[in-house]
Amino acid sequence: MGRLSATRHSPTGPDHAGCTRAWSPRLFRGASISVAALVGVTACAGPVSIVEPDVDPATRQLCERMVDDLPRTVENTPRRDTTGTLSAAWGTPPITFTCGVAEPAAMATDTRCFEVNGVGWFAEEGEGGWLFTSIGREVRVQVG
After folding, report:
1. 15-29, 49-63, 65-79: which has the minimum mean pLDDT?
2. DSSP label of 52
3. Of 49, 108, 112, 117, most Cβ neighbours within 10 A?
C-alpha cells in the first residue's frame, strides 16, 4: 500500500502546497476497506452511467489517455464499460474513476486532506460511500 500522510489543504499555490498535518488515517483505512470490499463484489449489469464533466479539448485528450492507462482489473475484479470516455468502473456496485472533475464545493481553505504516493486527496462522504478527489494535479480525478 502507498505511503499515507495527513495534511490540511491550503490552496495557496498551484500545487496546493502548504498543507499541515491534521487528518486522521483511521478514516482512510476505513474507506480503503470499504472500497476493497466493494471492488471484491463481482457482477456485470451493463455499462455504468457516469455524468462526465464538460472539459476543454486538451483536458479531454489528457483524461482519455489516463483512462486508457488504468488497470483492466482491480482486486481481481474486471473493468466495466462506462457511458463515456473520461471514466472507468470496476465491480458491482461500481467503484468509479472520473477524470476532469471540478473542485468539490465542500473543499475550502482549511479542508482536511491526505497524501498517498505523492498525490494529494480530498475525501468527502457521497451517496453510498466516500468520494476521493485528487488535488494539486494538472487535472482532478475523482474515485468513489
Report:
1. 15-29
2. P
3. 112
